[in-house]
Amino acid sequence: MADFYDMVRTEAYLIWEAEGRPDGQHDRHWLAALERVRERTAPKAGAPVIPLPLKRVVLSARARRRPQAAAPLRASA
């Protein structure tokens, strides 16, 4: 499935095209497209909710260490 905002972008473009490519209406087109895509992608009433697995982040030993203070800058001569 395409990224959500890619779908909104495509929908906004189609609205813009259908209205004859008017200038200065991009905010209205984006909001209308956002609403249309949300309606299409919203879960249906009564559909089972399937939880997504949590992503575990494993840090290496280097990433777990506290960051060291940066060395002071030296004035160049």
TrEMBL record:
One Pfam family matching this protein: DUF2934
Record InterPro entries: DUF2934 (IPR021327)
Protein name: DUF2934 domain-containing protein
Lineage, highest ranks first: Bacteria, Pseudomonadati, Pseudomonadota, Alphaproteobacteria, Hyphomicrobiales
